[in-house]
Write the structure tokens for this entry.
Amino acid sequence: MDIVPDRNTPLPQLIVKWAYTGIRLALSPGATIGYFAFFELLILLLRPDIVDKDNRVRIVPAEELAGQYDFVIIGAGAAGAVLANRLTENTNWTVLLLEAGGDERLITAIPALSYSFVNTDMDWQFKTEPSTNYCRGMVNNQCQWTAGKGLGGTTGINTFLYIRGNRRDYDNWRDLGNSGWGYDDVLPYFKKAENMSIPELRESPYHGTSGPLTVEYLKYEHPMTEYFLNATLEMGYSQLDINGKTQIGFHRPQTTIRNGLRCSTARAYLRPVTGRKNLHISTNSLVSKILIGETSKTAYGVEFVRENMRYTVRARKEVILSAGALLSPQLMMLSGIGPKENLEEVGVKVIHDSPGVGQNLQDHVGVGGLAFLLDPPYNTPSTLTQITDFLVKKEGQLYDIPDVDLLGFVNSRCANSSIDFPDLQLYLGSTALNTNSETVKRAFGLSDNFYATLYKNIIDKDAYGVVPSLIHPKSRGYIKLRDNNSSHLPMINANYFEHPDDLETLVDGVSFAFNLSQTPTMKKLNPRLNPNLIPECAYLNFPSRDYWRCYTRFFSWTFYHFTSTCKMGPADDKMAVVDSGLRVHGVNRLRIVDASVMPNVPSGNTNAPTIMIAEKAADLIKQDWNSIISGGCKISNVRASEIISPEL
Ligand SMILES: Cc1cc2nc3c(=O)[nH]c(=O)nc-3n(C[C@H](O)[C@H](O)[C@H](O)COP(=O)(O)OP(=O)(O)OC[C@H]3O[C@@H](n4cnc5c(N)ncnc54)[C@H](O)[C@@H]3O)c2cc1C
Ligand SMILES: *[C@@H]1O[C@H](CO)[C@@H](O)[C@H](O)[C@H]1NC(C)=O
Ligand SMILES: *[C@@H]1O[C@H](CO)[C@@H](O)[C@H](O)[C@H]1NC(C)=O
Ligand SMILES: *[C@@H]1O[C@H](CO)[C@@H](O)[C@H](O)[C@H]1NC(C)=O
Ligand SMILES: *[C@@H]1O[C@H](CO)[C@@H](O)[C@H](O)[C@H]1NC(C)=O
Ligand SMILES: *[C@@H]1O[C@H](CO)[C@@H](O)[C@H](O)[C@H]1NC(C)=O
Ligand SMILES: *[C@@H]1O[C@H](CO)[C@@H](O)[C@H](O)[C@H]1NC(C)=O
Ligand SMILES: *[C@@H]1O[C@H](CO)[C@@H](O)[C@H](O)[C@H]1NC(C)=O
């Protein structure tokens, strides 16, 4: 590389060039953490808009925490950040927001890097129990399940897609006995959250334009997007707003991005209100237990650990659990609410027997790794050019999400084609998994051997990817405590493909991918499916449905849409954990507000629905407590230094 300064190169470009050379010299391949640190240094120097110094969330020092708040919220993710904002709109209420991770890192703002944060300290790094039915291409047959740790939670590291699902998802929730959760009830809350910034959708009755969450198209549109669009039109699918009236068809990705950069819930909902005196935000604070009176069955506070000190803090009104669909059930169980047998097995005292906690686990699973080689109609700029364009000119390919350049919904043979309720979601991307091999292997937990078998002779060749996703899974998994230690992750059983229809639907997704490659538009690119077969499946005819069933059991791809482990439902449903006001059945002053309360996973990505749930929950909480206040309950001021009790 040329590092001789050229008199005509402006200083910012020079800084980038020198530093990049430094990175290349200093790092062996795959040393992502070091790469991040260098990249962040450059952002610090060149991109004050990302640094956003004046608006960053203020973390309250441990010694300034009070002993009591009106509300204590556990988890600052998609839901928790929304609640902290909305509840502190009432200046009479004090709120403590506790988050196990730290502030958002600068590097997470960049769309193209979204998968790079998997398996770092921004990820809880779950692994499912080994299985012979799925994730067989992964190390030790374990699926790697990611969930974000830090302000914004999973919205701080996710893939940005803004998708609400189908109106029937919510009508079904309502019909299961949850009044107030039908589509017409929840649409106003989707809109309340949203600032739709795609010009042609701003006037749509399905979108809002004054909410905190910005929704845009990607700032960089990859040339492949136009090919995918034309090809899907040739297949007979329309181009439509998939968050609008109907869902079948394709659309450019609508993303939770502002001016090209990540718009997590921390950025949308926390940064603007960090100056509020009635909001305390405490990071690196791992809640180990919700404190619940044994006889009163009333939640009155939480216990948490920050910098090796153990604290207890009281909630005058409510404890709100927003730790996500994998950790909310864990914390419930650690606190004595869950299936009696599991709790007794691991030595947790049962306060309330609630058999549904941790059950009904749902996710979207897909066929991973499909790669179609092609003769590219574009030139990919070098990494150095991409970085320079990003840092200096604020443009270029780092503003793309390479796995998702077009997105849509279609019916498989299992769907009811007389209604608009598609059962397959398709992600079409300008890259496939044969590139960026170290990151890809790490992100999906693929074994070296499996990766090499699939991609050995096509590493880094131009290819596009198609990933079909099963959006109405019939199989259900579960989460159990391994032991009573809050710093151990729970045991997860994904149970993918237990129901045979699930594989059938997905194989139609592969059929869609073939059909796409045969359209006149795609044929211009000479697409060729990756010729490498999985040896354990090679005895089956290629490309038969049997082969693809077998393939999918090896390359079972999670979309990380874990939901429904503390499902909402009426009291007469024994497996329901919360009621339609999201109050925990059988325990007072405890609510759950996050993806775990969804009765069933919606037909799309789960971030927007979780934000909607939190927006609605904030109104439910306000209604409940305002009616009590008008009955004469007085609010006293918090005293700073009350009962905080360091124990370690
Ligand atoms: C890699 C990836 C990509 C994704 N891409 C998309 C996408 O493109 N579009 C989309 O819609 N969805 C996407 N999702 C899913 C989506 O982001 C989640 O469904 C959503 O964020 C869930 O929100 P939540 O509030 O339930 O949980 P989270 O956002 O995960 O928030 C939970 C928070 O609680 C904290 N916490 C947990 N336990 C404790 C404890 N004991 N003490 C203190 N804090 C605790 C966690 O650290 C976390 O910050 C993706 C997920 C992943 C992992
Ligand atoms: C806050 O408390 C004051 C005094 O009790 C009351 O007048 C006011 O209405 C309350 N504000 C809200 C938003 O509830
Ligand atoms: C919504 O986004 C637009 C840009 O699309 C911006 O001008 C406006 O200020 C935003 N509105 C809010 C309420 O943030
Ligand atoms: C897509 O279709 C449009 C309209 O027919 C056409 O102008 C354009 O060239 C096509 N693009 C590609 C890449 O096929
Ligand atoms: C945790 O479990 C262990 C072993 O089962 C038991 O000895 C211990 O008392 C339990 N601790 C708590 C806090 O319940
Ligand atoms: C398909 O949906 C229609 C309309 O709701 C319904 O009448 C019909 O029974 C459904 N068909 C199947 C096979 O479920
Ligand atoms: C809980 O687990 C952590 C990490 O494995 C360990 O350091 C700690 O001692 C355990 N705590 C108890 C009470 O066993
Ligand atoms: C793909 O095309 C074939 C032949 O036209 C058709 O039978 C099949 O249903 C198509 N698959 C999908 C998922 O659309």
Summary: The two ends are 53 Å apart (CA to CA).
